[in-house]
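Task 17 of the worksheet. Students: predict the tertiary structure of the chain below and write it out as structure tokens. Keep your answer in the requested format; marks are given for formatting as well as content.
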Amino acid sequence: MAKISFWTRIKNFFTGKKQPTLSDVQVKDGIWYAKQNDGNYLLGIDESVYQLMGKITFADFPTQLKDIQVDDDLLDIEGDKSVETLKSPIAGTVIEQNADIGKNIDTLNEPNPQVNWIVKVKPLS
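Model answer:
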């Protein structure tokens, strides 16, 4: 059985419905981001972060995010190999944070967009 790539799994997850919910999946500095049908973006951790850091052992939102600009701090993370601050690849208003990140760090170690997403953002017009 052939192994399905991470990006194929993301695309399959979000296009499993009759109408795709995401388009234009892109990656910038360890963050994947994809546009949803409603025009908002979902942001998550790219597999390159796991390769660089190993298993993520701690994560924290640096502030109570409301409005973010490109390259604003998005998530502070510690791993087996390093400590990093992930930056936002887009500007907009945060409409939802993944509350499970603070409850169970293992959600970030899952290469699955259903669980390792960070925030949902309404982009600037």
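Marker's comment: The chain has a mean pLDDT of 82. Residues 18 and 28 are 28 Å apart (CA to CA).
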